[in-house]
UniProtKB/TrEMBL annotation:
It comes from Nakaseomyces bracarensis. Belongs to the WD repeat WDR12/YTM1 family. Keywords: Nucleus, Repeat, Ribosome biogenesis, rRNA processing, WD repeat. Component of the NOP7 complex, which is required for maturation of the 25S and 5.8S ribosomal RNAs and formation of the 60S ribosome. SUPFAM superfamilies: WD40 repeat-like. This is Ribosome biogenesis protein YTM1. PROSITE patterns: WD_REPEATS_1, WD_REPEATS_2, WD_REPEATS_REGION. Coiled coil: none annotated. Pfam families: NLE, WD40. InterPro entries: NLE, WD40/YVTN_repeat-like_dom_sf, WD40_PAC1, WD40_repeat_CS, WD40_repeat_dom_sf, WD40_rpt, WDR12/Ytm1. The keyword rRNA processing applies. WD repeats lie at residues 99-133, 140-180, 199-230, 278-320, 366-408.
Length: 455
C-alpha cells in the first residue's frame, strides 16, 4: 500500500522489438500528477538513454492523454492501485513539407507503387501525374465533370471516376518499368495518356473507386449502387457489340483490328459495361473499398446511414450495419479488425465487421472535427494510426486507442485567409512520402512526421 497519496505504483513494460528499449519489469512509485512528458523522463532515465526518446503511454490499451491523477479519477480508481503502463515510441507531429499549385479544387489523390509519383483528380475534370518536385508530368483529359476518384493500377494504367457518371481506364507508361502487361500488344494504337476504355453503367456521379490485386475495380455512385469492373477491358462486355468481332478461338480478327484502329483514329473510344451491379443501398453511396485480406469482399458506406459488406463473387450484400447518421468515408484497419467511418455529424466511428448486425454497431467514436469527415486513410507503418480529411479545413491524425486526435494539420498557404476556401476533400497517407491532402485551396499539400514508428 502506498503511504504517500500523491504517488501511485507503476509497472512499466513495452512490446518494442528493440531490446535496448526494454526496462526491468519492476514496480516503482511515481508522482500522481505526471503526464506523458514526465513519464518519458522516467523511462529514459531507466533506459540510461544518452539521447532521450519521446514515448507515448497506454494503460489497459488506452492512450494516456491526461495526468495519472485524472486517469485514476476518470476510471474510479484509488491511488493505491497498481497501474500497468505500456510505453511505445511516440509519433512526432507531422511537419509541413511542400505544397503544389493546381488549376482547380483537388478532389482525389493516389500514389504509384514506387512512391515516385502522385496522381490527382480535380474539379476541372483533369487527372494529373505529379513528380515529387511538384511538376505535372502528365495530364489525362477526357472527363466532362469533376474527377472524384483516381487509383493507380499498374505501370501501364490508372483509373478515374467522375461526376460525369463514368469511370475511365487510362493508358500510361513508365519508361523505367518493363511493360509486361498482358494487353500491351492490343494497346499499341492507344497513345500514352489517352483513354483505354470508358466504363459506363452508373446513372449518377461516380465518387469513389478501389482496386484489388485480382484485377477488379469497385465504384460507388450517387445512383445508390456499387459496380464491379475489371482493370482489363476485354473481360467486360462491349456496350457497342459491333466494336469488336472475335473468331471462335476468341482472337480478334485482322479485319476487326483494322476497323478498330480506324474507329480509334476517328475519336471513338471503347465503352464497357460493368461485370455486376451491387444493389442494396437506398441512398447515395459515398465510398467503397475492398477488404485488404480478402479481395472477394467489399465494404461500402452511404448517406442511407449504413455500412454494407459485399460478396463480389455473387454480387450480393451479405451484411448491413445501420447507424443514425450519413456515412461519408471508410478505411479498414485489418490487423485490428476494424472499419473506420467518417460521418456527416463530424465524428469518426469504429466498427468491427465481424460483429453481428444485431449487436452493438459502433465500437468507439473519435471526436474532434467541426464539419463533415469526407476522407480517411491508414498509416502504412503503424496499425493504430489513421488520418482524416474534413470540410473544416483540417487533416487530423488519430491513434484509434484514443478518442481525441493526436495532431491537427492545417492548410499552409499564407496568402489565403483562414476559413476561406479551405475545405479538404482528399487525403492519402503514403509510405516514404507522408500525408498528402488536397482541397478547395487548389493545392496538394504534403506533411511528414520526422519519426513515424512501428509498434
Amino acid at each position: 500500500m502506498s503511504e504517500d497519496k500523491s504517488q501511485v505504483k507503476i509497472k512499466f513494460f513495452t512490446r518494442e522489438k528493440d531490446e535496448s528499449l526494454h526496462v526491468q519489469d519492476v514496480p516503482m512509485y511515481a508522482p500522481i500528477g505526471l503526464k506523458r512528458y514526465g513519464l518519458s523522463e522516467i523511462v529514459n532515465h531507466l533506459l540510461e538513454s544518452e539521447q532521450p526518446v519521446p514515448f507515448d503511454f497506454l494503460i489497459d490499451g488506452e492512450l494516456l492523454r491526461t495526468s495519472l491523477q485524472e486517469y485514476l479519477t476518470k476510471k474510479g480508481l484509488s491511488s493505491e492501485a497498481t497501474l500497468n503502463v505500456e510505453y511505445t515510441r511516440a509519433v512526432l507531429p507531422p511537419s509541413f513539407l511542400a505544397s503544389f499549385n493546381n488549376d482547380d479544387w483537388v478532389s482525389a489523390l493516389d500514389v504509384s507503387d514506387d512512391r515516385r509519383h502522385i496522381y490527382s483528380g480535380s474539379y476541372d475534370g483533369v487527372v494529373r501525374t505529379w513528380n515529387m518536385s511538384g511538376k505535372v508530368e502528365k495530364q489525362y483529359s477526357g472527363h466532362s465533370a469533376a474527377v472524384k476518384a483516381v487509383k493507380f493500377i499498374s505501370s501501364t494504367r490508372i483509373v478515374s471516376a467522375s461526376n460525369d457518371r463514368t469511370v475511365r481506364l487510362w493508358k500510361t507508361k513508365n519508361d523505367e518499368i518493363p511493360q509486361n502487361n498482358i494487353e500491351e500488344d492490343e494497346e499499341d494504337e492507344i497513345e500514352d495518356g489517352k483513354t483505354l476504355a470508358i466504363l459506363e453503367g452508373h446513372k449518377a456521379p461516380v465518387v469513389s473507386l478501389d482496386v484489388a490485386a485480382n484485377n477488379r475495380i469497385l465504384s460507388a455512385s450517387y445512383d445508390n449502387n456499387v459496380a464491379l469492373w475489371s482493370t482489363i477491358y476485354k473481360e467486360m462486355t462491349a456496350i457497342d457489340p459491333m466494336e469488336e468481332i472475335q473468331n471462335p478461338n476468341n482472337k480478334i480478327s485482322t479485319a476487326a483490328k483494322k476497323r478498330r484502329k480506324l474507329i480509334l483514329k476517328d475519336g471513338t473510344i471503347r465503352r464497357r459495361a460493368p461485370l455486376a451491379l451491387l444493389e442494396s443501398h437506398n441512398g447515395p453511396v459515398e465510398q467503397v473499398i475492398f477488404d485488404k485480406n480478402d479481395n472477394t469482399v467489399g465494404y461500402s458506406v452511404s448517406q442511407d446511414h449504413t455500412i454494407k459488406t459485399w460478396d463480389t463473387v455473387t454480387a450480393r450484400c451479405i451484411d448491413t450495419k445501420t447507424t443514425s447518421y450519413s456515412l461519408l468515408s471508410i478505411a479498414q484497419l485489418p490487423t485490428l479488425n476494424l472499419l473506420a467511418c467518417g460521418s456527416s455529424v463530424r465524428h469518426i466511428t469504429l466498427h468491427d465487421p465481424r460483429v453481428s448486425s444485431s449487436s452493438k454497431v459502433t465500437q468507439q467514436q473519435l471526436v474532434g472535427h467541426k464539419n463533415f469527415v469526407v476522407g480517411l486513410d491508414t498509416c502504412p507503418e503503424n496499425e493504430y494510426l489513421i488520418c482524416s480529411a474534413s470540410h473544416d479545413g483540417t487533416v487530423k491524425v488519430w491513434d484509434v486507442r484514443s478518442t481525441s486526435p493526436m495532431y491537427t494539420i492545417t492548410r499552409e498557404d499564407p496568402s489565403v485567409e483562414k476559413g476561406v476556401n479551405d475545405k479538404v476533400f482528399a487525403v492519402k497517407w503514403a509510405e516514404k512520402i507522408g500525408i498528402i491532402s488536397g482541397g478547395q485551396d487548389k493545392k496538394l499539400q504534403i506533411n511528414k512526421g520526422d519519426n513515424i514508428f512501428k509498434n
